[in-house]
Amino acid sequence: xxxxxxxxxxxxxxxxxxxxxxxxxxxxxxxxxxxxxxxxxxxxxxxxxxxxxxxxxxxxxxxxxxxxxxxxxxxxxxxxxxxxxxxxxxxxxxxxxxxxxxxxxxxxxxxxxxxxxxxxxxxxxxxxxxxxxxxxxxxxxxxxxxxxxxxxxxxxxxxxxxxxxxxxxxxxxxxxxxxxxxxxxxxxxxxxxxxxxxxxxxxxxxxxxxxxxxxxxxxxxxxxxxxxxxxxxxxxxxxxxxxxxxxxxxxxxxxxxxxxxxxxxxxxxxxxxxxxxxxxxxxxxxxxxxxxxxxxxxxxxxxxxxxxxxxxxxxxxxxxxxxxxxxxxxxxxxxxxxxxxxxxxxxxxxxxxxxxxxxxxxxxxxxxxxxxxxxxxxxxxxxxxxxxxxxxxxxxxxxxxxxxxxxxxxxxxxxxxxx
Amino acid sequence: xxxxxxxxxxxxxxxxxxxxxxxxxxxxxxxxxxxxxxxxxxxxxxxxxxxxxxxxxxxxxxxxxxxxxxxxxxxxxxxxxxxxxxxxxxxxxxxxxxxxxxxxxxxxxxxxxxxxxxxxxxxxxxxxxxxxxxxxxxxxxxxxxxxxxxxxxxxxxxxxxxxxxxxxxxxxxxxxxxxxxxxxxxxxxxxxxxxxxxxxxxxxxxxxxxxxxxxxxxxxxxxxxxxxxxxxxxxxxxxxxxxxxxxxxxxxxxxxxxxxxxxxxxxxxxxxxxxxxxxxxxxxxxxxxxxxxxxxxxxxxxxxxxxxxxxxxxxxxxxxxxxxxxxxxxxxxxxxxxxxxxxxxxxxxxxxxxxxxxxxxxxxxxxxxxxxxxxxxxxxxxxxxxxxxxxxxxxxxxxxxxxxxxxxxxxxxxxxxxxxxxxxxxxxxxxxxxxxxxxxxxxxxxxxxxxxxxxxxxxxxxxxxxxxxxxxxxxxxxxxxxxxxxxxxxxxxxxxxxxxxxxxxxxxxxxxxxxxxxxxxxxxxxxxxxxxxxxxxxxxxxxxxxxxxxxxxxxxxxxxxxxxxxxxxxxxx
Lengths: 419, 573
What we know:
- The complex is a heterodimer.
- Chain A is mainly alpha-helical.
- Chain A has 22 helices and no strands.
- Chain B folds into two domains: 5-113 and 462-571, 7 Propeller (Methylamine Dehydrogenase, Chain H); 166-446, no CATH class.
- Chain B contains eleven helices and 16 strands.
- Chain B has helices at 132-135, 169-218, 225-234, 240-296, 298-302, 308-353, 366-376, 381-386, 396-407, 421-446, 511-516; strands at residues 13-19, 24-29, 35-40, 45-49, 54-58, 64-69, 75-80, 84-89, 95-100, 461-462, 467-473, 485-491, 527-531, 535-542, 547-552, 556-561.
- In chain B, the strands form four sheets. Chain B has a four-stranded antiparallel beta sheet, with no helix packed on it. A four-stranded antiparallel beta sheet of chain B has the order 2-3-4-5, with no helix packed on it.
- Chain B: Residues 165-356 form the Anaphase-promoting complex subunit 4 long domain.
- Chain B: Residues 28-113 form the Anaphase-promoting complex subunit 4-like WD40 domain.
């Protein structure tokens, strides 16, 4: 039982608001002030520690929906660690992850410790960035930064660096991406075996930056050493992610045949650890690899993509969705039995959807590709005006990709000034 | 119709001839065992063994219009006049499940084996997997209303989840939608059970404590029960009214009884939330999320009317209900705690008033007693949340937080906390209805009736692949005779066979053409046996056992063995 007086602050503080009359509400009117919701917020007699425990079960659920089936060391580390660890690609059930975070943020705000609250907000912002683009995410980040000013900013700072890196990669601002990536690496402790997650993430981002800069052999070298590390420490989610990255590196370097075994290995990792979304994304990479082997594999690639689509569309972010749509459109276009004249809408609808989503995400390279394909289709159809329109969009995206302008970004300035 | 069978061996051996209690209108042999299911005029189903021993009788209460054994013989499907189809166990006639998809009489039933899924690569068939069972334990069932003992309150079938590979988009959608429907049913039932139980408990509480108000008036005091209790708590004075109430009218036993009722009910409610309401809402959220993925696959699912906007809306609503459930649970637990605290205090007071030792009693928190008297004694926040027509007043701080969360991707409808749990459920249900009505209307518009074939049971049954058993009633003019009928088998191979194409134009039932191919049955050429009764419609033939059951107009059942004379069949002249 709780001791006397433990609740006085919660309800006595609010008493003057509800009534000026004596304590007991036998008079008219003031009775309405008691509502079910007051029992939820002010009059709740549940001790705070119990609420905190209950609340962290929701964070746990939310995280579980993000990284179901990851290696055991993730779960054995203290709460704070697994809350912030986030492999961006293994989101298993996006709606439920978000809803559980929201339940926490709505119902446990008074009882929660500020670090828990910050990580839940970080989760929500992460979700925004993946599903609604960077603009909304950075706006929310700004609010969160003000809200959690007092906190040692590690969760929010980490999130900011992650978002900045992703956006820089998408915009093609590789110099900035490398800079942010280095800063992320500095956050980790220099002692070996500590902050493993952070070090893995920094190195993974480093490899991705190198890949975006077409430095294939360096990217592969970083990825290989990362894989050794992850394998040694049994980090299964990261294992699958790194293998997938290796497949991507080979795909982009034009060695589709070399990429296939990596994609398949990643796929089997995902299968045995129930990483459904990562599996869908590995399937997509596999399809892209098959497709790049020639048009006679288009059917096989299309079947693969269609198998993964429910998962990708339901739980994948803007990037993955757009990639899948472009790959699907490419499958149709390279299939000899398909004719644009018979059913151009199939391809055009996919490309339109993809380019819309990529614009929100500011992913210049992929958006340019979508417009490129679109211009080709319009050219074939003889719709010259719309062809020119698509071509102009293509050009615009390519230009932005080659001359990235981020200098006027206030967020960036604050970052660069940071020690 | 006269045959001189005196010089011939009777072709079918009569096994027995038994009277039946009432006229049989449908009869079917079990395809695997020697069991005969019969439906009487009074719509009773009787199951008899081959030796006419009765196994069980059931009476569904409505008019039975058709009957069909499952091919494995372990269950029988019964079609009723009101459109219900129910499945009964062969062992005891127990109802296994029932469904009602329309309100028109079911006149004909047939089991269809689910065909193999045709994997056509050009069609890009993709196996769809229902992931729910990977993540969730079996779906919660409808909670039982206490006191009501009934075996058949729910027909939900566990095997529904085992359908892994679905044939097409519509099937996937239907699968998810029907699962969601079942789960909403769980939530609805949980809410109504909780509402009922809680108001019962509260009535008990108020019945007991209302006498205090009366006592206060009787003692001509100008105060309220809360004030009296408060002064008791403060130790200022114990008014005679409270003393009389606590010691005489309520007493220790009374307090304990009310404590048991109220807190027991609150515990019960918590169990309902934890075992039924919350899991059901979570699985709904999961399934809606999966559907949302499908709804985004425009090329494939837009055509069947899965609308992304509507599904999005439904997903949001299923998230809101989870927040609401969390809030309800917290209010409920805190109310339960305060009630038990209050009763513990009362117990202590009674002991003190009776001047008995009170040291083994549970401790109480006097601050919570004050809160209880002020906010809970004559108000009921739990009931508020369970009722539809209430507005919950949300404090500014919470409102602000909810609004701030919108920026973080929270629910764009900031007002949802002002709704009660019951109201939120209603809205969620509406949004589901709207989302699932769309495919319904879209598909309905696409369906065109191309062809109509009349379905009616044939008056003959195939005895085996090659034989047809016919039952013929003699057309005798004299009505007082006992009637005269015969049963005969016809070799199916001797009959001409014309396939009627379904897809040619409408005059496919071209009678002239069919007439041309009719054959005349010559009694002498077939295996025939006379039956000395006038027979009526159902003729039950068991192909595997070679037995036939014939019903005579005068309430008799005759079982014949068809098989034994198989060897004699060749020597028909």
